[in-house]
Structures are given as C-alpha cells and as structure tokens.
Amino acid sequence: MYRRGKIALPSAETRFFSITTVYMESEEVFSGQYHAHPYGEINCVVQVDETAELEGMNGWRGAGWTSPGPGTHHYPRVRKGALVALFFLPAGRISYNATPDMKQPLSV
C-alpha cells in the first residue's frame, strides 16, 4: 500500500521546503515511482511496525533521518511492514525524468 499527501507547499513559513507525507506498507519489497531530487531531500522515517524498512541511498534503514544529495535518484521502497515518511524538498523540486540506468552524482 502506498499513500502520499502534500502537507505544505514551499513558503517563507517552511523555509521554502515543500513537505509531503507518505505511508508505505508491504511485507515483500514494494516500489514507488522512480524519481530524482534536483536540490536534494531531507527525510524523517517513522516506523509503524518496528520491523519496517525504507530503502534509501545507503541501503535499507528503519526509523531516522536521511538526506539524499542534489541530483540523486531512486525508487522509494519499503519492506517488512508499515512506515510513515516526511519528505522535505527544497523549493518543492522533484523530477520524474530520471531512470535507474543514470549515474548517481558524486557525494562529498
């Protein structure tokens, strides 16, 4: 199951980040839509089930914060239960033009 909802558009009150919440639930691996972060992204992952994991740029993780850098791209994936994630996007920028065969940018 995958549900997404916009909490806030970029504004002075949000320091010009958009805020989106996503609920993902699956025992097996479930993939959302492949996308890129033109200006990066900040994520807060909250486990509904203590075994739930979200796959990010550094592999499978449980609860906590991640921050994929500018230009990174991936499938949002969940396994082993349910979780909620808050995604903070600088200027609300997200791109659905990336493909899995594209090279990831270098990290510093």
Explain what the structure shows.
The protein has 108 residues and is mainly β. It has one domain (2-90): Jelly Rolls, CATH 2.60.120. The protein is 0% helix and 50% strand. The model has no long low-confidence stretch (mean pLDDT 95).
What are its keywords?
mainly beta; 108 residues; 5-stranded antiparallel beta sheet; Jelly Rolls; 0% helix; 4-stranded antiparallel beta sheet; PnbB; 11 strands
Number of helices: 0
Counting helices, strands and paired strands, the structural category is mainly beta
Residue windows where pLDDT falls under 50 for at least 5 positions = none
Q: Based on CA inertia axes, which overall geometry fits?
A: globular
Strand order of the largest sheet: 1-2-11-5-8
Determine the CATH superfamily. Jelly Rolls
Could you report the average pLDDT, rounded to the nearest whole number?
A: 95
CATH topology: Jelly Rolls
User: Major beta sheet, specifics?
Assistant: 5 strands, antiparallel
CATH architecture: Sandwich
Radius of gyration computed on alpha carbons: 13 Å
- Counted beta strands: 11
Identify the quaternary structure here.
single chain
Helix content: under 10%
Sketch the topology as an H/E string, one letter per element. Answer: EEEEEEEEEEE
Number of domains: 1
What is the rounded distance between the termini? 34 Å
- Tell me the β content: over 45%
Which class in CATH terms?
Answer: Mainly Beta
InterPro entries: PnbB (IPR032345)
Protein name: p-hydroxylaminobenzoate lyase
